[in-house]
Every structure is written in C-alpha cells, then in structure tokens.
# Entry
Amino acid sequence: MIPSDILSLTQEELSAFLAAPGEKSFRSLQIFEWLYKKSALSYEAMSSLSKGLRLQLNEQLPFPVLKELQRHASTDGTTKFLWGLSDHEMIETVFIPTEKRATLCISSQAGCKFGCQFCASGIGGWKRNLTTGEIIGQVLRVKAAMAPVAITHIVFMGVGEPFDNYENVMKAVRLLNSETGFNIAARRITLSTCGVVPGIERFAKEGLQVELSVSLHAPNDELRSRLMPVNKKYPLKELMSSCRIYAEETNRQVTFEYILIKDLTTTTKAAEELAGLMQGWLSKVNLIPCNPVDEFAYTPPSREEAFRFKADLEARGIICTMRTPRGRDVSAACGQLRHLVKSSSSGRA
Ligand code: SF4
# Structure
C-alpha cells in the first residue's frame, strides 16, 4: 500500500510512485534532496520541479500536518515544540543542544497506554500511533527551525512507546539513517522502550546498529510493577533475558534508565539488587533524578544521596552515569511531556 504522505515514503517507494505518471527516475532523488538536505517544508519550495508535478504531489502525497502550536525555550537552551496533527491530536518534540551535540527527542505515539507512575505522557491515555511521516516530520521541522545548528543525535524518548508502533518507527529509523534521507549514523539514534519484550527480541534481528535504551527504573518486580504496570506483563526475568539476547546478538551495550526517587529507588538494598541484574554482561545504567509532575508525589534525592547511590553501584563494578536534567523550567525534562500545556510555558524518564 502506498503511504498517504510524502514523509512516509522511502526513496524506492517514491520512485515507484513517480514511475506511473512517467516521471524521470532521478526525480525521486531530487525530491529527497529537497526534503532531507535542503529542508523543504512544502512543494512550493521545490523550484526545480515543474508546477504540474508540484500540484500533483501536493494532492496525492501531501506533507503530514504538523502545525506548530507552541514553542518554549528553556534558560538552558532546550526548546520544546508542541505540534497539532491533522486530527487535532497533539505531540511534543524536544531539542536539546549541548556544547558538542544537539539531540532531538521525538514522539512515536499521540499519548501513551503504558501508564508509568512518574510520567506525565501516560496520564491522558493512548490516542493513536504516529505515521512514519509524522515521526520524520518532527525532525524535518525542527531541523529547519533550528538551522544552522545541526541535529546530531535522535532519541525516541518523547511521548509513546516505540515498540508499540513497531513498523512505523522502524521505517522512520531507516529514513533517519539512510544516505539519501537524514543520513544520521545508526549509533547516534536511540530507541527507548519501557520493556516490551517481543519488541526487543524483534529489534535484535533487524541488523541495525541503533542504540537500545530500556527504562528499568526499579530493581525488583514488586517495586517495578508499582511504578511501571508493563512489568506485570513482562516481568524482570523475561525482560533481562531479552536484553541479554539483544546484547549477544548485536554485540551492543544496552543502557538501562533508572529513576532516582528519594528513599524509594536509592536505598543500599536497591543498589545491591540493581547491580545483581547488571553484573556480567554488556550494559550500563543511566541514573535520572525524578522530575516534578503534579500528579505524582515523588521527590528527587538530594545530590549527596544520588551520588552515594552511584558510588554504591560503581563499587559493585557497574558502569553508570548521572543525567543532568534539561528543560525543567518549560516542563521538557524526562517524564514531563504531555499534550496539555500549562499556560506558563510549554518523555520518558
Ligand atoms: S515512560 Fe514512556 S512508556 Fe511510560 S508512560 Fe511515559 S511515554 Fe509511556
């Protein structure tokens, strides 16, 4: 089936589409250059195409609707975008520049059905999957908005669970990575899952060098099921076994995201249990102090408590890093994304 928007098409699909009206074979490459190298946001901008072809494409393969509803810049340089889609659903995208790189955190679904108990994105429930074009459209629009700063890294850590929208996300990953697409190296693309085991197992067989990040957030089933209902379906034993298979099959390190909640996930016992899950294989832990979300009454640990927990893990031989929160003042940090935006301003942990 031919996708219904231009950004959902691979170059081969576009070539096949253009072959029918008798267009020259180089046209698809020319259009891809307009999209992915010159950041054209409409057919009108594609001045090397005939007017007739532009009109035809506009009618048959329109750009997906991503209307910029709000843009909020944090004092730390992070910028959060709120987009309106064709059916009036809303999604968010966060641009996070640092000295050496610029990361774009993108959404894969409108809303989320997984209901993690620290994440604003799941509060309104799941609305629908994004099309490949709506995923790619976030990158195209932010690239154009932030030029000349180049996007160097992509993380699927915005709203939604990427493995719950598997086909569209995989196609988007290939477009991000392809030479005629955005040409972003696979190792600079990260897929983040809350622990959908069949998705991890399927992903291991894709032959992609993309990074896998797993939201772990608790060191035992009892606490993880409380914080992340997905654990009732895919408990830790199954999850860890699928991650080990992934590391073995791809020879790639798995990153585990772990939320730091005062007196809950940062105890000595928690460090011991977490280290037990990590020992002896290719993995690392990224520690994330929890970010404020009105609906959840969790408190981040003090700096001392957070670094004591990190040292506890390191003493047990675990590689770990501490994430610096970005964009908290515009509710753009991990776990704060939601499609309802507070009037003062405008993911996953
Ligand atoms: S952390 Fe991810 S999977 Fe969990 S509710 Fe938030 S967006 Fe959904």
